[in-house]
Structure formats: structure tokens, C-alpha cells
């Protein structure tokens, strides 16, 4: 009797796990692509006006305010957290 209850509980657990994975895997697969799209949209709306589409900072506003070239090794060597702190300038 105890063995049968344990077996049923394991089957329910396995079924729940499989269903959960079937739901989670497709949802997680779209995450990075959507994050990249959001990042591109944020850059285009908040950064490209000064830094230009290529990040060089060679726009009229970028030149007059002295924004850094985002492609430079000085900028690229900084951790993402430091760069995120700098985002506040535009928005």
C-alpha cells in the first residue's frame, strides 16, 4: 500500500516536471533575442542621438558635449554595471 502511494506521488511529480519544462523551455528561448531587441531600441532612442548609430560619438551633439567613443578600448574594458550607471545622462 505504501509502495503504491509512493509510486503515484513520483508519477505526479515527474508529470509536473515534464509539463513545467515543456512550458518553460519555449519561453526561455525567446528571452535573449527579446533582450537584444530591447537593448537596440534603448540605444536607438536614448544613445544614438549623441553617440551615433555606430557608437563613435561623431554627431553634432556628441562632438559639442565630448561624449566618448563607445567603441574605444577605454569604454569597452569597463564592466557592464559601470556603463549602466552612465546611462542616466540621456534618460
Helices, strands, pairings?
Blueprint: H1 2-29, H2 31-46, H3 48-51, H4 60-65, H5 73-76, H6 80-86
Specify the helix fraction band: over 70%
Order of helices and strands: HHHHHH
User: Helical element count?
Assistant: 6
Structural class: mainly alpha
Bulk shape: rod-shaped
Taking pLDDT < 50 over at least 5 consecutive residues as the criterion, the unreliable ranges are none
How does this structure look, described?
There is one protein chain. With 91 residues, the chain is an all-alpha fold. It has helices spanning 2-29, 31-46, 48-51, 60-65, 73-76, 80-86. The chain is 71% helix and 0% strand. The radius of gyration is 24 Å and the shape is rod-shaped. The mean pLDDT is 76.
Provide the descriptors you would attach to this structure in a database record.
about 0% strand; about 70% helix; about 90 residues
Brief synopsis:
The chain is mostly helical and 91 residues long. It has one domain (2-26, 38-89).
Amino acid at each position: 500500500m505504501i509502495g503504491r502511494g509512493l509510486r503515484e506521488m513520483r508519477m505526479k511529480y515527474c508529470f509536473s516536471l515534464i509539463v513545467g519544462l515543456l512550458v518553460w523551455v519555449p519561453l526561455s528561448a525567446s528571452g535573449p533575442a527579446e533582450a537584444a531587441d530591447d537593448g537596440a531600441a534603448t540605444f536607438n532612442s536614448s544613445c544614438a542621438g549623441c553617440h551615433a548609430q555606430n557608437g563613435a560619438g561623431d554627431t553634432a551633439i556628441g562632438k559639442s558635449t565630448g561624449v566618448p567613443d563607445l567603441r574605444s578600448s577605454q569604454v569597452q574594458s569597463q564592466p557592464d554595471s559601470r556603463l549602466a550607471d552612465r546611462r542616466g545622462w540621456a534618460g
